[in-house]
Amino acid sequence: MVFDVRSHETYSSLRVPPSAEVVLRLDGRGFHGLTEKLGFTRPYDENFRDIMAATSMDIMEEFSPAFIYTFSDEINILLSEVPFSGRVEKLDSVFAALASSSFTLEALSLGFKLDQAVSFDCRTIPLAGGAVQEYFRSRQSEAWRNCLNGYAYWTLRAEMGKEEAVRTLEGLKSEGIHDLLFERGINISRVPSWQRRGIGVYRRPVEVEGYNPLRDERVTASRMRTIVDMDLPLFTGEFFRELIRTG
């Protein structure tokens, strides 16, 4: 009797709905401990930022999604075309593996010594219609909460230690956290935009200079380029309409 492998691959036939927009969300596994071991600055570190941005660029170059949005240890990918015939098992495994290996190589290239494997998990999120905009707005809101809470926690922890910092922040609403930081000389609305709103990776037309030998003159032309946007606006419908129009 021949063993039927495919009949035991429980989820191999699970596919995303053909009419849905598809977002993949990648999250770093155990990154709190990893970043501590690597000595990254808290709450934000430019080396970690650059590794996550470079990882996102690698994903963009490999699969050409419509938009990638990253903050903290999270990468959100809006697919323009769904590869692997929409098979969820393949989407989750391949994108997680690509992010894990890319992050590792980028970290090593910056001189960081890794003594443990780096891994991301991935979940596939089918969305309908305007839900795409709402999804990314919700993730940007989460980036803002992370920024506010991160600055508050690490500022207090340097002042009074871990347990007292947690007790001080317990039950405190955003206005109170704003006041607490302002009293310590931190205007949270003026920290770098990438910390408050996250980072976008997407294609945009840019003007490039060239030379026309027939006319012997300098000329300009529009070319699509992938950019890493560290000064994102608040996400609006207009932002996503422009993204779709020019992407």
Automatic annotation (TrEMBL):
Recorded superkingdom: Archaea
Stored Pfam families: Thg1
Gene3D superfamilies listed in its UniProt record: 3.30.70.3000
Keyword Nucleotidyltransferase: yes
Protein name (Swiss-Prot/TrEMBL): tRNA(His)-5'-guanylyltransferase
Keyword Signal attached: no
GO molecular function: magnesium ion binding; tRNA guanylyltransferase activity
Coiled-coil residue spans: none
GO BP term (any one): tRNA modification
Organism: Methanothermobacter defluvii
Domain tRNAHis guanylyltransferase catalytic, residue spans: 5-126
Keywords per UniProt: Nucleotidyltransferase, Transferase
InterPro entries the record matches: tRNAHis_GuaTrfase_cat, tRNAHis_GuaTrfase_Thg1, tRNAHis_GuaTrfase_Thg1_sf
